[in-house]
Write a structure and sequence with these properties.
This protein is an alpha/beta fold. It has a single domain, classed as 3-Layer(aba) Sandwich (Glutaredoxin), CATH 3.40.30. 44% of the residues lie in helices and 21% in strands. The protein contains 8 helices and 7 strands, in the order ααββαβαβαβααββα. The chain has helices spanning 2-16, 25-29, 42-48, 64-79, 94-103, 117-120, 122-126, 155-164; strands spanning 31-34, 39-41, 54-59, 84-89, 110-114, 134-138, 144-149. A 7-stranded mixed beta sheet has the order 2-1-5-4-3-6-7. It is globular and about 35 Å long.
Length: 165
C-alpha cells in the first residue's frame, strides 16, 4: 500500500512539473556545427536570432517521423515567414545530413549538426530528448514558450506561433 501511494504521489509530482522557460548554462555552451563546418555554441545561435521568434526542429535524415513531418514544417515556414527556423540534426553522417536538407526541401532557415550527438549532448540532455522529431518555440525575449512537441501538426505549435506574432 505504501508503495502504491508513493508511486501515485511521484507521478502527480512529475506530471505537475512545469517545463523550463530558459536554457541552462550547459545547453547554451553546447557546440553545434554549421553546414560550413564551423563550431558554434548554442547561445550564439540564439543570439543570431535575438528579438525574433524561433522555431527549432530537431530531426535526422534517417528518421521516418521526421520525414513525414517535414512537409508540414515547410507549410509552417510559408505560413509564418517572420519566424526564424533553426534545424538541429542528430545525424552522424554529414553527407547524408546535407543530402536530407535538399531531398526534403528544407533549404531555408539555419542548419546545425549536434556535434556530440543525441546521447552525448548537454543540449539534448537538458531538453530530455527522447524522440525525434522534436519541436520547440522560443519567443522574442529568448524564453522557451513551447518546450516539447513531437508532431508538426501539434495544435500547440500553431497556438504558440499565433500568440507570438
Amino acid at each position: 500500500m505504501r508503495f502504491i501511494l508513493l508511486f501515485i504521489f511521484g507521478n502527480l509530482f512529475i506530471s505537475c512539473a512545469q517545463p523550463p522557460t530558459q536554457f541552462d548554462t550547459t545547453s547554451l555552451e553546447d557546440t553545434f556545427v554549421t553546414l560550413d563546418a564551423v563550431d558554434t555554441p548554442f547561445d550564439e545561435i540564439l543570439e543570431k536570432h535575438k528579438g525574433k521568434t524561433i522555431f527549432i526542429d530537431i530531426w535526422a535524415s534517417w528518421c521516418k517521423d521526421c520525414i513525414i513531418g517535414m512537409p508540414k514544417v515547410n507549410k509552417l515556414h510559408k505560413k509564418y515567414p517572420d519566424v526564424q527556423f533553426v534545424f538541429l540534426t542528430v545525424d552522424h553522417d554529414v553527407v547524408k545530413w546535407k543530402k536530407g536538407i535538399q531531398k526534403f526541401k528544407i533549404e531555408y532557415g539555419d542548419h546545425y549538426l549536434i556535434k556530440r550527438g543525441w546521447k552525448g549532448s548537454p543540449f539534448c540532455t537538458f531538453i530530455d530528448l527522447d524522440w525525434i522529431p522534436r519541436y520547440m518555440i522560443i519567443d522574442t525575449t529568448g524564453q522557451i514558450t513551447l518546450f516539447k512537441a513531437t508532431k508538426a501538426t501539434d495544435r500547440n505549435i500553431i497556438k504558440s506561433l499565433d500568440s507570438l506574432l
